[in-house]
Q: What sequence folds into this?
């Protein structure tokens, strides 16, 4: 059996591909033609969404005991990770303005952020606890709030 398509399959593929190209080019032309248009219902009534606010979290670095030199690099890396997590959550907050219901921010942003922070704070406590007394009570620093 030959690997080449039989002649009728080649024609069918060519016809379908040509039709798809025509449809897609028509959609692109229509989209570019309508790109500058505004709808009649929104003319003069443009509104901007309110600022979503920012996420504020407790400072972990100021609540840590003396960090042993052997754990310093790992603690610094995890403190940087905590800052990155807050930045990502703030970006997600800005990107999802107006989405979800009344508990969207708590369920989709603040809850997962608290879980990530709790894990990172636990890694900090473990790295300190390898050579010194493991700090306690740091779990309370995991929860963040939304400030408007």
A:
């Amino acid at each position: 059996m030959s690997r080449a398509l039989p002649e009728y399959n080649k024609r069918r593929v060519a016809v379908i591909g040509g039709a798809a190209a025509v449809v897609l080019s028509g959609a692109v032309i229509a989209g570019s033609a309508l790109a500058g248009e505004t709808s009649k219902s929104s003319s003069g009534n443009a509104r901007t969404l309110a600022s979503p606010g920012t996420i504020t979290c407790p400072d972990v670095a100021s609540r840590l005991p003396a960090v042993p030199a052997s754990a310093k690099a790992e603690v610094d890396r995890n403190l940087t990770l905590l800052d990155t997590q807050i930045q990502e959550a703030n970006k997600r907050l800005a990107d999802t303005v107006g989405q979800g219901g009344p508990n969207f921010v708590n369920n989709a942003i603040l809850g997962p952020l608290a879980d990530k922070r709790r894990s990172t704070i636990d890694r900090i406590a473990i790295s300190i606890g390898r050579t010194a007394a493991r700090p306690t009570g740091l779990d309370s620093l995991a929860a963040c709030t939304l400030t408007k």
User: Anything to note?
Assistant: The chain has three helices and two strands. The chain has a mean pLDDT of 82. Residues 53 and 148 are 4 Å apart (CA to CA).
